[in-house]
Write a structure and sequence with these properties.
The chain is mainly β. Helix content is about 5%, strand content about 35%. It has helices spanning about 305, 375-380, 395, and strands spanning about 5, 30-35, 50-55, 60-65, 70-80, 80-90, 95-105, 110-115, 115-120, 125-130, 135, 140, 145-150, 160, 165-170, 180, 190, 195-205, 210-215, 220, 245, 270-275, 290-295, 315, 325-330, 330-340, 360, 370, 395-400. Strands 10, 13, 15, 18, 20, 21, 22, 23, 24, 25, 26, 27, 28 and 29 form a 14-stranded mixed β-sheet that branches. A 6-stranded antiparallel β-sheet has the order 1-9-7-6-3-4, with no helix packed on it. Strand 6 and strand 7 form a beta hairpin.
Length: about 400
């Protein structure tokens, strides 16, 4: 993803797509004219080639167009409820805008869409495996093997030391969201200027240069047990390997089912520890069907000093148990949001400054994983793997049939 260098609220639109012969609706259609608006200092930049995608939230149908040099695109669409993503990347950086639950009904519309602007990041999330697998040849489902992989997407060595990560409230995309509201005039999402990180914050060890990541190199993070899960469940993965990292703290998360002692190949120096625990669960988990994952690093102070400030840790409205840490969007290095493919009631939790889109996990307990696309052109030029990074998971990620670590 990126370090945010220009912060704008994502105002959003009501857009669409040519329905033509693929129109799933009967009846009249409406014309929508969309204009993408760049930050003032970039107002004269050519805006051709932005990708505008609309998804019918009821049917799942998706349509896309690209903008002209002045940032406009015209669509025709039937009445309906839509989710919109507009994104693009150039030498200047990454541009994104998004709208959720946009109602198009009965008349032509013209919208100006303010685009957020950011720079691509150095360390990105390459893969997120959270959905579990079958226990075959035994009966039942298995979910104690979650992991994710980080990737150095930069031409220089990067360091994992002191990087933090966590997941946002609510844990599931279909859960009650007390932090994202609706504009009463437009019905558009209004995101806070922080990410409400729930359960806890994890932090990599190191003093600044202990854990280098070479250009194109990966780092595996075991969210749950750093053991060989495949010994008992062949459809799972072996997470007991040298150089893997593991989330492990028996004081805060003592449940041995999900946090067994790390395997014999795991170095004590690669145990990722808890900065602050804000929930009551005895095991840490990413949602199996629709988590968020955000990678960030504190700026101007340590994360320990930040969470020590009372107003930076607040209660989840209506809860006597859970609190969240108000992590500034400016600290984000990368983030991914996952929607539950079995539901039409998903709600965005990450604002467009972190992730303007989402990747859908269609089902759970099938060993499927969420993987970032490779930028083939950039990879060929650089000589090492460069991953797609548009700050929009709808473009950057896809679902695989099995985990990349499955042997």
């Amino acid at each position: 993803m990126k370090k945010v260098i220009y912060i704008l609220a994502a105002l959003l639109l009501a857009s669409c797509a040519d329905v033509k012969d693929t129109n799933p609706y009967e009846g009249g259609v409406n014309v929508l004219t969309l204009t993408a608006v760049y930050p003032e200092e970039l107002a004269d930049v050519d805006k051709a080639g932005l990708n505008a995608v609309v998804e019918d939230m009821n049917t799942g149908s998706r349509y896309s167009q690209v903008t002209t040099s002045d940032g406009t695109a015209t669509f025709t669409l039937p009445n309906g409820l839509y989710r919109i993503n507009v994104s693009g990347r150039s030498d200047l950086g990454i541009f994104n805008g998004a709208a959720d639950k946009v109602v198009i009904s009965g008349e032509d519309l013209a919208f100006s869409l303010q685009m957020s602007y950011s720079k691509p990041g150095s360390i990105v999330i390459k893969e997120l495996y959270c959905g579990g697998c079958k226990k075959l040849p035994q009966e039942g489902d298995y979910q104690a093997d979650q992991y994710f992989i980080l990737h150095n997407n930069h031409y220089e060595v990067q360091y994992l030391d002191s990087l933090c990560f966590g997941t946002l409230s609510p844990n599931n995309a279909t859960g009650p969201n007390y932090f994202v509201t609706k504009d009463p005039a437009t019905g558009e999402n209004v995101f806070p200027d922080y990410m409400p990180v729930i359960q806890c914050i994890w932090q990599f060890p190191g003093d600044g240069d202990d854990f280098p990541l070479q250009p194109g190199q990966d780092a595996v993070v075991c969210v749950r047990g750093a053991i060989d899960h495949s010994l008992q469940y062949p459809l799972s993965v072996n997470l007991n390997k040298p150089d893997y990292f593991v989330c492990y703290n028996v004081t805060y998360f003592p449940n041995p089912k999900y946090h067994p002692a790390p395997g014999d190949q795991i170095s004590d120096s690669r145990i990722i520890d808890v900065v602050i625990k804000t929930g009551k669960a005895n095991a840490y988990t990413l949602s199996i069907n629709s988590p968020t994952l955000t990678l960030f690093k504190a700026q101007g102070m340590s994360i320990q000093d930040f969470v020590a400030v009372e107003e930076n840790v607040i209660a989840v409205p209506g809860s006597y148990v859970d609190r969240v840490v108000k992590v500034p969007y400016e600290w984000v290095m990368d983030a991914v949001e996952v929607f539950d493919g079995s539901s039409t009631n998903n709600e965005k939790r990450l604002g467009p400054l972190a992730d303007a889109g989402f990747v859908t996990q269609t089902d759970v307990f099938l060993g499927r994983s969420l993987m970032r696309h490779i930028d083939e052109e950039a990879t060929a030029i650089s000589g090492y793997e460069i991953l797609a990074d548009t700050n929009n998971s709808s473009n950057d990620f896809y679902e695989t049939e099995k985990q990349s670590l499955h042997e």
